[in-house]
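This section describes the prediction task in plain terms. A model, or a person checking by hand, is given the sequence of a single protein chain and must write out its three-dimensional structure as a string of tokens. No templates, partner chains or ligands are provided. The sample shown here is typical of the held-out split.
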Amino acid sequence: MTEHRGANLIAALEAALPRDGDERAERIARMASEAGITESTVTQILRGEIDIPPERRLRGFARALGIAAAGLIAAAERDGANYTRRYYV
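The expected answer:
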């Protein structure tokens, strides 16, 4: 089995999501809404097609899933994300 990009983040998200059915679809819709993105973008992240989403998306996911954002951020950082840089406008 080949490892997906974003494997640690995927595992953390999947652990917090229902396995299938309407509840999973509703939770993905809530994740999208909280993160300000489309449901298809959430699905791309869950498939590893987008491996390092912005931190603000992870915070939205955490709100939707009722989990600590720190765990998702740590998982993404193990995948190579670096959320220490801040850009000021």
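For orientation: The domain at 7-77 is CATH 1.10.260 (434 Repressor (Amino-terminal Domain)).
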